[in-house]
Hints:
Layout: H1 2-76, E1 104-107, E2 110-113, H2 117-130, E3 135-138, H3 143-159, H4 173-180, E4 197-201, H5 211-220, E5 226-228, H6 235-238, E6 246-249, H7 252-260, H8 265-270
Antiparallel strand pairs: 1-2, 3-4, 4-6, 5-6
Helix pairs in contact: 2-5, 3-4
The structure holds zinc ion (ZN).
Zinc ion is lined by residues 192, 197, 199, 246.
Region (Disordered): 41-81
Protein name: D-alanyl-D-alanine carboxypeptidase family protein
Pfam families: VanY
Amino acid sequence: xxxxxxxxxxxxxxxxxxxxxxxxxxxxxxxxxxxxxxxxxxxxxxxxxxxxxxxxxxxxxxxxxxxxxxxxxxxxxxxxxxxxxxxxxxxxxxxxxxxxxxxxxxxxxxxxxxxxxxxxxxxxxxxxxxxxxxxxxxxxxxxxxxxxxxxxxxxxxxxxxxxxxxxxxxxxxxxxxxxxxxxxxxxxxxxxxxxxxxxxxxxxxxxxxxxxxxxxxxxxxxxxxxxxxxxxxxxxxxxxxxxxxxxxxxxxxxxxxxxxxxxxxxxxxxxxxx
Length: 274
Ligand SMILES: [Zn+2]
């Protein structure tokens, strides 16, 4: 009987120990789980912080870039124009184009791009009020016609009956081409192909118009959307020597900006987005 009691006691003690072990184990698990949850929570909250930091930093970078672009455009007043705008097309030795076939309208007996007919007529009228002899010499020229014109100039230079070689003495074709390139462009490289260029002068000879009149006409040109394209000191960017009669339509806002900042069309377009 005593033995039985002892056994019961020891079973009871073992049972208690077992319960304790289980209880401790459970408690430990609980503790680990709680810590993990807490860590997870901390991690996720730090993730959120990072994300919110990222989003706030990206927001602020967007904000700063927006404010930069706003401030730069507002400080420079650069028009909201693009390189691809129809009135900013560049046709020259570096940007040759095939026949553009622009829609045409006649002003002062010359073909011009129909989109600038009104502006061209208004500009001519204003120029005539400065000097009644102002008239259009040329407007739109097709690539085919430009080719004929260019070849004729080359032949004249070769024979000594040209604009540069007026000596009456024959020169080589290579030399003649060099001469012609100072006042005419090979086919596909003249902006007369766009119908946006107009040769206007009081006379029919190059650079022979009264410089005072040229200055006055040049000054009013931006009001009608035109610039004197090949100005003195801009030869490096335009690739063409000074021409006192070659006006180019670019739109009022662009013309005003270019004139105010003394930029050639080529320099101006380089500042614009595509
Ligand atoms: Zn011209």
